[in-house]
Amino acid sequence: MFHCISVGLHRVACLRPARISALAMSTLILLASNLTLAGDLKKADIERRFGPPYQVQEKLREIPVWPLTSSLEQKAGPVAYVFESIDLAPLPGFEGTPMNFLVSIDRKGNFIDVELLRQREPVFTFRDLGGLGDTPLREFIAQYAGRNIHQPFLIALDAARNRPGHASNNGVTTLDGISKATTSVRIVNQTVLGAANEVARAKLGFADRKQHGPSAHVLSDVYDPVSFAEMLSNGMVGRLRVTNAEVEKLFAGTEGANVDETAMAHPDEVFIDLYIAYLNAPTIGRAVLGDAQYSAVMERNFDKRHLWWIASAGRYPITDDDFIPGTQSARLAMTQNGTFYDLRDQDLEPKDLSGPPALNTSLLFGINTEASLDPARPVELILTVGRAKGSVLPTVVAKQLTLSYLAPARLFAYPPEPSPEWLLAWKDRWIDLTIVGLSLILLSVVLARPRWISRDARRLRLFRLGFLTYTLFYLGWYAQGQLSIVQITGAIKTLKAGLGLASYLYDPISLLLIAFTVISFFVWGRGTFCGWLCPFGALQEFVGRLARRLRIPRLRMPLAVAKRLERGRYLVLAILIGAAVLFPSQGETLNEVEPFKTVITLGFERSWPFIAYAAALLVAGAFYYKFFCRFLCPLGGAISLGGLLRRSDWLSRRGECGKPCQRCKAACKYDAIEPSGEIRYEACFQCLDCVGIYHDDKRCVPIVLHQKKGKRLLAERDNQVSMQNQPRVFHRSPAVPEADGR
Ligand code: SF4
Ligand code: SF4
Question: Do 471 and 482 meet the contact criterion of CB atoms below 8 Å apart?
């Protein structure tokens, strides 16, 4: 026996397929090996793609990237990095397998190229057989070239923001999304950005946004006139004054000790008086440079670099004799949170400074904005002091002096924390989520209190047709809320590969439906999803009703045969799960047994073999009601197994049901009622037809018989009374006891 048998209110035996499937699944999972999550390419593959002037270096050990050097900049070190996303951000796709892209970024964090290497997203497969193919995906990733990884990225489908190359004014990059593939595209975006950020943090010194959050920006409208002395006291200008004696102390015990005769002769004199100020903040910049020079400097600073005024007095300048304007000073370095930044001279000497003492050097230095330095957090300006002992082969000793600098916080503001990509997906679809949520509430109310809606057959028919129309057109074709076996096989592959299920967050409509369906397992069993919320199931129901209108004969088969054939959906389910575990790369082809992608996801926009297959299933459903649902659907099989979690037999029954009354059994189009009157919940689609009959005193046979019997008794009594010419006494007709209060 393959079905859960109910006797009265108690279930006494459960499905063997559940046990078999569970056993088979655990065995398969034990047998299977892990998915491969490693990159595909060798150095030669990269060399084929990146020819001269690029030179591909060996793959690094600490992080799987190939550095690219350039023959045009021999001494510049790596000018770009190339890497496979699967090595750094193996985010599982909708189908459960991570996609793989070859990503290249330059040393400023600009994308050079993103190339598709491998993907198995259902919506992007079968290019040669129809469907979307991977062309839209390739077009999507082509949009990354030239963008910087530090720009916030948005994916939009609306035409206004969807122009190629469009970037909104607030610095947010908007990429053209792909309709019908919004979930997959969000996962692509996370994969590409996740991998690129890993490399940027490891090789370009970019800050970890997860740890530090976004950088602050200068409040350009905050300006208070301040004097140089005030800036020294309130921290707007940082200062480090070091005497000869203090420097001598630094070198104590080293080869550099006692070699600076001037220092030893004048220990209290100033070795260096070091100054630093952050010029982008108007209050500081205008006070240091003066209004006219500040405006000129900011106009020239078109790429919004962080600009610092760094100056020195005393006997040790901040630049040595070999310093070339426009380059780094060998004596200076800047760090923040342990990360060194490329501090470059801007070849601009401030003039007419008022306030500081006589300076020996006064320069402007800049740091690229894309390097993630946060101007509202402390920076360390490191000055290297070198001493040489000996004149022929001198021993050089270097020590560092550090000036910590933190500009006042009131000069800056932080942007709001960017929402995670999955949350954007939920926000984008709040209207759809609201509508779907309300429809689920409505359905819950109807299933919890089915009496009013079902007792009137016309009312039930109108409500059911209305809801199924919503399910097919809105939930299915518009909101793309068709649950699928792919979500189950994908979850198996993802878990097996040791990756979390976080990618499911990117598809909020499906997640909401999955959550509701799982809860419905405990309350109502299998039929809530299959009877009301499956778009393809709704389409089959419309086809079945149309067939009746066209007087196409409905075929029925003996219950025993139908019950045997219903095992087919468990068999298909077991095969698909086995394939997902054992052959994850090939398994998704088998998922095409489901016509959902053809009919609902792609709206029949596929090549003819897929359309012919889907049409054949619908035609079969015209003759045999819900043919696919009952005998083939693997998702229906999985949901039937989930329905075993049902806590009660909630469909009302009478003692007369099946003994002898067969009214509901004959009316049930799903063969879900046994001759004994018991409901087969794993086959019930919760159409509520039998509930309506149960509550209708014109259709429920036991009620009709009881009423007839009551009327007959009443008439007999009336006759007797009139014959005896006695005062008449009225009694109510005997009522039919109800199985429960519903
Ligand atoms: S059996 Fe399959 S196709 Fe039918 S309603 Fe259920 S999930 Fe949909
Ligand atoms: S008529 Fe059949 S399918 Fe409909 S609710 Fe009753 S048992 Fe379920």
Answer: no
d(CA 529, CA 641): 13
Helix 16-31 and helix 567-582: axis angle, to 10°? 10
Pair 165, 159: CB distance under 8 Å? no
How much is the pLDDT for 211?
A: 53
Question: Burial letters for 418-427: b for 16+ Cβ neighbours within 10 Å, e otherwise?
Answer: eeebbebbbe
Question: Ligand 2 centre and the CA of 707: distance in Å?
Answer: 25
The CA 554 to ligand 1 mean position distance, Å, reads 19
Distance 669 CA to ligand 2 centre (A): 8
Contacts of 121 (CB under 8 A, 6+ apart): 93, 94, 95, 99, 137, 181, 184
Residue 653: burial class (beta carbons within 10 Å; 0-12, 13-18, 19+): buried
User: Which residue type occupies 471?
Assistant: T
Helix (H, G, I), strand (E, B) or coil at 103: strand
494 with 187: CB under 8 angstroms? no
Q: Tell me which of 460, 524, 626, 689 to substitute to probe ligand 2's pocket, judged by most ligand atoms within 8 Å of the beta carbon.
A: 689
Return the ligand 2 atom nearest residue 687 CA.
4
Q: pTM of the predicted model, to two decimals?
A: 0.64
Distance from the alpha carbon of residue 672 to the mean position of ligand 2, in angstroms? 6
DSSP string, 126-188: -GGGBSS-SHHHHHHHGGGTT-BTTS-EEEE-SGGG-STT-B-TTS-EEEE--TT-HHHHHHH
Look-up of token digits 């209110």: 9
Q: Over 90: is that where the pLDDT of 639 sits? A: yes
Closest CA relative to residue 510, chosen from 475, 539, 541? 475
Q: Which residue has the higher pLDDT, 638 or 339?
A: 638
Ligand 1 atom nearest to 483, measured from its CA: 7
Collapsing DSSP states into helix, strand and coil, what is residue 83? strand
Give tens-digit pLDDT for 105-157: 988 888 999 999 988 777 776 544 345 677 888 888 888 888 887 766 666 65
Question: How far does Cα 452 stand from its chain's mean position?
Answer: 41
Q: What whole-number distance in Å separates Cα of residue 93 and Cα of residue 95?
A: 5
Of residues 234, 299, 308, 245, the one with CA closest to residue 272: 245
Positive or negative CA dihedral for 433, 435, 437, 440? negative
3-state secondary structure 350-416: CCCCCCCCCCCEEEEEEECHHHCCCCCCCEEEEEEEEEEECCCCCEEEEEEEEEEECCCHHHEECCC
> Could you tell me which of 409, 410, 388 has the C-alpha nearest to residue 398?
388
Average pLDDT over residues 216-237: 93
- Contact between 84 and 117 under an 8 Å Cβ cutoff? The reply is yes
Which token pair is 364? 């402007």
Q: Where are the domains of the chain?
A: 9-16+422-722, 43-212, 217-413
Residue list, ligand 2 pocket, CB within 6 Å: 668, 670, 672-673, 679, 684-690
What's the whole-number average pLDDT of the chain?
Answer: 83
Q: Convert the pLDDT of each residue in 498-538 to its tens digit.
A: 777 887 888 899 999 999 999 999 999 999 999 999 999 99
Query: Burial letters for 216-254: b for 16+ Cβ neighbours within 10 Å, e otherwise?
Result: bbbeeeeeeebebeebbeeebbbbbebbbeebbebbeee
